[in-house]
Amino acid sequence: MRQLAVTPVAVSPRVWLLLLLGLFGLFVLGFDQGQTLALFQGEHAFDVNLIHELVHDMRHAAGFPCH
Ligand SMILES: [Zn+2]
Question: What is the block-wise mean pLDDT of the chain (67 residues), using blocks of 10 residues?
Answer without folding.
Answer: 87 95 94 92 92 92 85
